[in-house]
């Protein structure tokens, strides 16, 4: 039972964040999912500063670490798959840090606070860890655990995440609707995580 929950914790995390962000957004008057970042739900001074990390970052960090642990304890797998597990754990730990240290209310501020700087570093770790993990899995030998089809799927999700990251960067520079591009980029990474959960389940 314990391992069954662990193997599906990647899938659970994906479903959790969808509902978590939606619920937090309901308590933030005027919040715009298309224009605002997910992290703005926990920004300093916002109405959901305390709520968002409690229902999003902290439980999600636990789920990511749980799934990462499942990956690293799998027997007879490539070191690349084990490395992907450590990346998922790093993603979980960074999710906790990003929740504990809120970003500034103005995401475009020229003089970020100390907390915002820590939040940004944690965000970079979150971003990179779920870029590296699918690449490691895609490069791992084909086996009963990681099929050839899933390796192709991993590459597709990496490309999708990169494309939407680039469109998000453009939206940030134009200060238009970076929120939707962030969700699409992170969504591609979480779809990969969900796929891996189902592949192993």
UniProtKB/TrEMBL annotation:
The chain crosses the membrane at residues 6-29, 55-72, 78-101, 121-140, 152-172. Keywords: Membrane, Transmembrane, Transmembrane helix. It comes from the Bacteria. The keyword Membrane applies. InterPro entries: DUF998. The keyword Transmembrane applies. Pfam families: DUF998. This is DUF998 domain-containing protein. It comes from Pseudoalteromonas spongiae. The lineage of its organism: Bacteria, Pseudomonadati, Pseudomonadota, Gammaproteobacteria, Alteromonadales.
